Each structure stands twice: as structure tokens, then as C-alpha cells.
Amino acid sequence: MGKRRTIRVWARAGLVAALALVCALGGCHRHRAAKEGRTPAPGPASQGGARISNPTKEDQEEARAMAIDAAGGSLYVAGFDNTPGTNDTAWRIEKMPLGDGDGARAFGEGGAVSANPSPRHDWIEAIALDGASGCLFAAGCDGARGYAQWRVEKRDAATGRLVEGFGGGGVLQIDPSPGNDFVAAVGCDGDGFLYLAGSQFFGDQPRGHASPDHEHRETQDGWRIEKRRASDGALVPGFGQGGVILGDHSPLNDEINAMAIDPAGGCLYAAGWDRCQGDENRQWRLEKRRLDNGAPVADFGQGGAVTDNPSGRNDVIACLALDPAGGVLYAAGYDNSTGKKQWRIQKRRMSDGSLVGGFGEGGTIAFNPSPHHDVPKAIALDAAGGFFFLGGVSREPRDGQWRIEKRRCADGGRDPAFGDAGVILQDPNPTANDEVRAMALDPAAGLLYLTGFQSRKGDRAWRTERRDMSDGRLVPGEGWRD
To answer: What is the pTM of this model?
Structure first.
């Protein structure tokens, strides 16, 4: 009874400055051994190749999700901004052309749309493009009922306008419980259906209204997955019970963080954690379910679920990527084997959930980039190129910095040509937290896009970067000059 949170998760949920070349061209800060857990010192924030967006010029604003339309030449970034001097955060989506990044002016007002459905915390957690309809789906939470409830918007990808006929005026507000409920992921299957994943409160004593950082997390919540028609947002009755699957795995809180869809294989994968091992002992949980009716696929793990509890403390899956052609998936998150959160990556077979030997040690890579808490937040896969990218945060005292890695799909080893021995550390503000939250790839153009936030003078601003996939260099251009 305690859970929450990310399909091709665009999500639940992300580029040339001289000193941010991070040694890819040779001549930057010191090179170090590429041993797991040892990484280069960060270079200062670069000029050129990034785009900074700070709509209110103060308070906390974060980009949390990204979707790319490479064929259409557009990039979408979503999250929230803040009304100055208040705790009133609002939904925000920005669209920018891949070529110059100045904003697609026909989208909303000057390239951005926003919505503020309540005077409390409202935020976007995930977005997904539906190429068949030319629409963008955004999923997150609003506080219109005094606590966090699910909110989904359907917008025209070209203009940003809400699409009538979906929910009420283009908006679905889903309130499954009297407590805080969180959306982590949204995605389309290309066959006219929309999938949502997150958590639902199952207890009888709800806490106060939650924030985007999930303050007031419920002590009793569980997994929730929905299937809806993409046209009008109606639940699909043949999926689970009336279009909904509930998973109350433990008497505590269990949450979904990521979801990935395999339309050709007819399955979805949901990932996060449960507390079946007891309080203060979250374990990795990964489920495989059929798209048509939501039933667990029995051959996957034990009865449709794989769990992993490496530390006996708090271990969590944060992000997920599928390679259907290769029949494998990549899950990334953290464990607490060292007493601090450290990065953990696994490669598993999509068929039965078993670990793939030859990747790291027995299918797992675990390492601790710093003596502090380090967490991956996003993964992007270039299966054809044989690499995957990870983005997240590596922490130092009073500082969190962007960490970006490029690794080989085959064995998980870092690509030495990327950044400094496979790693880029970017630290826009060395005295505050900066985080990568989402990633997207344009393999045809050889470009990696990342988004998240940077902090400065008590203010968080959206930061989006454009980098070369081969060596990690920031790629400047008109509109990419920050």
C-alpha cells in the first residue's frame, strides 16, 4: 500500500563550450583512470551548446521530461515553473526546433504553453508524442482537490492547443483516492491507446498536499497502471479491472518510476520498487504485462515480476529502456550497498527477465561515483550504434552536478572517446544542486539532448543541452548559445 512513479518512457521523465568539452578533444581538465567509481573532476559550465529557460527569473523551476520528433525537427521539454514568492508551481511545455533552438513560435505563446490548474503544486512528470495523431500527451499532477491527483493533457503538437474531445476540453483529472496519487509515465502504443503508470494511495490517513519533490509522500500507496483510448481518454474495460491495474505489493509504500512499451511484442514493462522486505528496505521491482488485458506474463521472472534486493536497504529502479530487436532491456537506478546511493545498471532478457552474462559482472554494473548520494535519472538507447547513455546527478558536499555517461550495450564498458574516459561532469553551480532529468537521441544527426535544471542564487532554471553523441562535445548554434 505505498507506491508511486516512468514506455518508451519519455519521460516518468533528458551543448560547445570550451571547458565543457570534457576532454573529448584532448586538452581539458585532468584525465583519470576509467575505473568504476573514479571519475574526472567537473569542468565549469560552458558557454554555447545549451539553452537556459527561466520564465519567472526566481524560485524553483525544473524541466523533468523530454520528447523528440526527429523527423519533424522538433524537441519538446516539459516540467514546471513557479509563481514568484509562492508555492504555486504550474505546468509548462516548451517546443524548440532541433536546428536552432529558438523556440517554435507557432506553439503556444512564443514556443511555450503553460497551465496553472490550482494555487498549489502542479507539475508535469512525463510526456509522449503520438505520431499517428500529431498530438502530444503530458502527464503529471495538480493540486486542484487539495492534494496531488493525476492530470493528463492532450495537445496539438504543432500549435500546443488542447484537443477537444479528450477528457474535458483536452484534460483528464483522475482522482483515485483521498490522498496523494502520482503519475510517473505516459506512452502510446501506435494503435490508438494510451498507457499511464504511477501510484495510488491505499491508506485511511492521507497526508498533506505533495510537492514535485514528493514531500508528504504517503506511507501506504501502491502501483497503478491504466489503459485509455488516446482519442477521448476513456478507460478500456478489457484491461485489468475496468481499465485499471492496482498493485498493492506490501503494507507500506511501493511506487512505479518508469514504464516502457513494446507494441510489436504486445507487452509493457513497469519498473520501480516495493517494500515487500520490510520498512526502510525498498527493493528493485520490474513487471511485464500484456498490452491487451494487462495480465502478468508468467514466464517473466516469478509470475511476471523480477525483484532484486542487493543492499537490504533502499534500492530503486529509476529508468528503463528496451531493445526489442535485441530482446534485451536496460534498467538503471541505485542501491545502498555502500551505505550511500550508488549507480546500478542491469541488462536483462525481455523474454524471461534473466540477467545477461557478459554485461558488467553477471549482468550488473554497480559503482559509486562519489562518497555521497549519486542517482541516475534518465537513460537513452542507441541500439543500432551499440551504445546507451545515462544521465543523472553526482553529489559532493552542498553540490549536485550533472553526470553523463556513454556505455557499450554489449558489455557495459564506458566509451573512452566520449568525454573523459566515457564520463562528462557538468557543474553549472558548484555550490548548489544541478541535475539531469531526461534525455533523447537523434542518431541520424549524431546528437544527444539532455534537460534538467541548474541552480543559481537560490533560483532553479531549466537547462537543456545539445551534445555530439560520439565525443560528448557541446554543439552550439543559433539559440544554443548559453
So the answer is: 0.89
280, 288 in Cβ contact below 8 A?
A: no
CATH of the domain at 120: 2.130.10.10
pLDDT of residue 373: 87
Q: Is 9 inside any structural domain?
A: no
CA 358 to chain centre: 27
pLDDT of residue 35: 37
CA distance 185 to 125: 7
| 240 domain-assigned | yes
Nearest alpha-carbon partner for 378 in 3, 126, 20:
126
pLDDT at 1: 37
Query: How many domains does the chain divide into?
Result: 1
Report the alpha-carbon distance of residue 367 to residue 36 in Å, rounded: 6
User: Which three cell numbers mark 290?
Assistant: 500484456
Nearest C-alpha neighbor of 13 from the set 65, 67, 91: 65
Greatest alpha-carbon span in the chain = 60
Pairs from 241-249 (Cβ < 8 Å, separation ≥ 24): 244/176, 245/289, 245/294, 246/200, 246/222, 247/3, 247/222, 247/223, 247/287, 248/1, 248/3, 248/202, 248/222, 248/223, 249/3, 249/222, 249/223, 249/274, 249/275, 249/276, 249/285
Residue 133 lies in a domain: yes
List the domain range (segments joined by +) for residue 97.
34-468
Does residue 25 fall inside a structural domain? no
Sequence-ordered strand ranges (E) for 230-336: 244-247, 255-262, 267-274, 283-290, 305-308, 316-323, 328-335
Q: Given this model, what pLDDT does residue 104 score?
A: 80
From the list 313, 287, 214, 310, the residue with the least C-alpha distance to 2 is: 214
pLDDT for the residue numbered 44: 40
Residues of the chain with pLDDT under 50: 1-46, 215-216
3-state secondary structure 83-134: CCCCCCEEEEEEEEECCCCCCCCCCEECCEEEECCCCCECEEEEEEEECCCC
**Grid cell listed for 270:** 513497469
Residue 91: what pLDDT? 93
Under a CB-based contact definition with an 8 Å cutoff, are residues 29 and 43 in contact?
yes
